[in-house]
Amino acid sequence: MSEELHDHDRGLSFDLPTLQRRKMIRLLAGVGLVPLVGCSSDDSDNSASSSSSSAGSSSSAASSGSAECETIPSETAGPYPGDGSNGVNVLKESGVVRKDITSSFGSASGKAEGVPLTVTLTVVDAASGCGTPKEGAAVYLWHCDRDGNYSLYSEGVTEENYLRGVQETDAKGQVTFTSIFPACYTGRWPHIHFEVYGSLKDATNATSITATSQLAFAKDVCDTVYASDGYDRSVQNMSQLSLETDGIFSDGYDQQLATTKGSVEKGYTATLTVPV
Predict the structure, then answer these.
(1) Tens of pLDDT along 109-161?
(2) Which candidate, 213, 203, 216, 273, places its Cα nearest to that of 243?
């Protein structure tokens, strides 16, 4: 593995074309040429034992189906997608369709350690005003481990394929993954990558991606997790970043900020509505 492949800052070079497109859309919106109406979930929890973050105040639009709904912002898949676009293709391997992604599958046997995290994405039809679930779609989700490494790519874990998996959406448009809370590595705010496909067949054939985006976490939740054992590197990396300065989320993250609640002891849940 060359130094270039496990240099996480490399991902920023992939981001620039996407950022330019999104900034142009927002510029047009400012002069009334492109309507931008947010649609995201909002689930708050006021208990002292949990931390939570809302993705905005427009959950009513998601539940009732507003006239307009903005699709999830497109983001780079980064240099470690594992979908065949940059080297290895995990999507065509038997066993990739699974809920629990903490362990590797196939001939690999590694397991990612860390604070437990359950991620639920709800894929909805943007054209319906976020009111119609996308049943039978598929989501490929992946992220780094507690040390900031990506399986299949990073030095020391190139033979592992943990923290990667595919799920088919149910009647509610939902997929749920059992995982661990990702690290904060140099140059990037804590995040999870995902790709939405029209069907499970499309996903396992690695064809016809409907949307590619990223999920972000709130600072208070990250600070709490990173104060626990095993996340020492993340503390320093977080101190040098903010959502407003991150290369991906700096131009807006309302639709990508997950609603997260729970505790280090019991684990966390993160939920996000994904209009496509």
Answers:
(1) 999 999 999 999 999 999 999 999 999 999 999 999 999 999 999 999 999 99
(2) 216
- Only one residue has tokens 């047009």, namely 28
In this structure, are residues 203 and 194 in contact, taking their beta carbons and an 8 Å threshold? no
Token readout for 54 is 């809302």
User: What token pair was written down for 115?
Assistant: 């604070």
Per cent of the chain over pLDDT 90 is: 75
6: amino acid identity, one letter: H
Would you say the C-alpha torsion 38, 254, 83, 105 has a positive or negative sign?
A: negative
Q: Give the side-chain half-sphere CA count within 13 A for 244.
A: 0
Phi-psi region of 252 (alpha: psi -120 to 50; beta: other; left: phi over 0): left
* DSSP category for residue 204: H
Q: With contact defined as beta carbons under 8 Å apart, do 237 and 210 qualify?
A: no
Between CA 124 and CA 67 the distance in angstroms is 14
67 — pLDDT class (breaks 50, 70, 90): very low
Q: How far is CA 149 from the centre of its chain?
A: 16
Sequence-distant (≥ 6) Cβ neighbours of residue 242 within 8 angstroms? 189, 219
Question: How deeply is 4 buried, as exposed, middle or buried, from its count of CB atoms within 10 A (0-12, 13-18, 19+)?
Answer: exposed
Task: State the average pLDDT over residues 92-102.
Answer: 97
pLDDT of residue 8: 43
